[in-house]
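INTERNAL AUDIT FORM
Audit reference: QA-55
Scope: verify that the stored structure record matches its stored sequence.
Auditor: D.O.
Record contents follow.
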Amino acid sequence: MRIVHVTDCYAPRTGGIESQVADLAARQSAAGHDVHVLTATLGEAGERGGVVDVEHGVHVHRLGARIPFDLPVNPVGPRLLRDAYASLEPDVVHVHAGLVSPFAFDGSRLALEQGLPTAITWHCMLDGVIPALRAAVHSTHWSHPRAALSAVSTVAAERVRRVFDAPVEILPNGLELDAWAPGPAGDGTGPESEPGPLRLVATMRLAPRKRAVPLVELVAAARDRLPAGSLRLTLIGSGPAASRVRAAVSRSRLQNVVDLRGRLSRPQVRDAYREADVFLAVAELEAFGIAALEARTAGLAVVARRGTGIAEFVEDGVDGLLVADDAEMTEAVVHLARDRRLLDGILAHNRAVRPPFGWTEVLAAAEAEYDRARSIA
């Protein structure tokens, strides 16, 4: 099958959509499919205008242009997309949409205009824009799109249904579960509660919507309620809010508590998780939470916001704790620091029980969406 993925953002940019599309495409290629990615993101050396890279068996078509701030957009993107569809003659087009995805929107529109089987997956929460999107959809031909619509989690899919009044399936993110799984208990390679400070970790892009500064502030609030030396936080990631995060650490006098590690490779992140107890996920609009899934698979307890996609694989009181707001997250951190029996029970469960969303299941779900797209094209 010739599969063409369309995404505004792709490597070398980093983020949830970028890593998931790359992983999905690589695994489809390994399964014998002819896989192409059309993206508005420039290559590592600025490749653009139709240059094709081959990465892990996937043909990556760089259709972006040089734009200020390296934004993944191209004024002539529609022409390039149209030409790519005509040249590739895909069996299915799989569009990956975020909250603001002009390239993906053009990719969807043109694929549907050409009668190509089209699957559209939302990787975001649509909170705050549902009324406007619904009005736009119901005043255009998008009110009855001949596309297979999906989202990465139940909560994200519910928002998409409110926009389109159409069936929306779940196509979750995938993870190489074996690569993230902890070793046998006691072998020194997995997270285990130990005497000493509660070892917290968070992995995120340091951008305002990911809420790294509120994370630092709630850890400071927890620190103030516990004996000295009770907490350690490793914060992994880089991004435009890095200077504000450093300022928040200094302002809160957390220099001896918070370790700002910057951007790490996946193997380095796995190593960091082996030295942690609890993963903190503070984002309010998390459609799925791949970093939280990685941490959960590694055996860590997860503390996350209720009503996000993380609830797909974290049951409150079993895999971790789900909270309503930052105040409750502070309370959860304090509780876990004081109640090591509770923490040890969660860690033991998470080491013994794997979460769902291995690639075998996700690849099957993707093919089911492609079958659905072909049936309604």
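Auditor finding: record pair retrieved intact. The chain has a mean pLDDT of 92.
Action required: none
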